[in-house]
Amino acid sequence: MDRDITALVVDDEQLARARLRRLLKDVEGVRVLDEAENGMEAVEKIRGLAPDIVFLDIQMPGMNGFEVIDALEEVPLVIFVTAFDEYAIKAFEVNSIDYLLKPVGPERLDEAVGRARDLLRARPGLDREMEKLNAVVRSRSLERLPVSKGKKIVLLDLDDVMWIASEGGLVFAHTRVARYLVNRTMAELESRLDQPRFFRIHRATIANLDHVREIVPWFSGKYKVVMKDDEGTELTLSRSRVKELREILPW
């Protein structure tokens, strides 16, 4: 690619962001679009600016670097930046293109940018890298669930998620107080949520069994799963899932 590589710098420490931006000024062909001081801001700016590369701090309060990646629909090339070697190992587990240990040195930065530039020039290599990154990130168990509230990203504690349902082609997570749009398929959520606590009671519904009040007979071999929310929401338990659920919650 002949144009400048565009970059976003993400770090919760202002001095770390300033140092990296200063070093990047000396790297030919790189243009820093902006910076973000936390994970939520990073997600918004990645979506809005679509940078070629994100220099992403791993350990940040509120939303760490891995959760930033997990909240994105389209993931750019990622160069993780960390002060801890243990996080560098995890960075390779999610197939970032590279990682930088703090304090970042100019030679190591040049090397990482060079690798990124090569990938951006070679479309097949870039596509493979993105496929690996997305596959590995999406295979990790969810510790919190990233959801959308308007234009904002919210991280829900899994204890607060009562059920998840596919409604009109969209997927929503329901809590006691609200429902939130989830940018995941039901199949992906089923594979990544803690089992058997999160149990797929129907092709369109995953229930948090900790929030089930009772299970009552319905008709045609089906049952209703009554939730502990104020409305006592009734969810359909399909016949094909009855036997498996009885092994978890005998009735």
CATH superfamily of the largest domain: Response regulator
Instruction: Count structural domains.
Output: 2
Query: What characterizes the major β-sheet?
Result: 5 strands, parallel
Indicate the CATH class of the largest domain.
Alpha Beta
Helical segment tally?
Answer: 8
Rg computed from alpha carbons, rounded to a whole number of angstroms: 22 Å
Helix content percent band? 25-40%
Strand proportion: 25-35%
Instruction: List low-confidence stretches.
Output: none
Order of strands in the sheet with the most strands? 2-1-3-4-5
Mean pLDDT: 89
CATH topology of the largest domain: Rossmann fold
Shape: elongated
Furnish the topology, listing elements before pairings.
Layout: E1 5-10, H1 14-24, E2 30-36, H2 39-49, E3 53-57, H3 65-71, E4 77-82, H4 85-93, E5 98-101, H5 106-121, H6 123-139, E6 144-149, E7 152-157, E8 163-167, E9 170-174, E10 179-182, H7 186-192, E11 198-202, E12 205-208, E13 212-217, E14 223-227, E15 234-237, H8 239-248
Parallel strand pairs: 1-2, 1-3, 3-4, 4-5
Antiparallel strand pairs: 6-7, 8-9, 8-12, 9-10, 11-12, 13-14, 14-15
Concise summary:
The chain has helices at residues 14-24, 39-49, 65-71, 85-93, 106-121, 123-139, 186-192, 239-248, and strands spanning 5-10, 30-36, 53-57, 77-82, 98-101, 144-149, 152-157, 163-167, 170-174, 179-182, 198-202, 205-208, 212-217, 223-227, 234-237. With 251 residues, the chain is an alpha/beta fold.
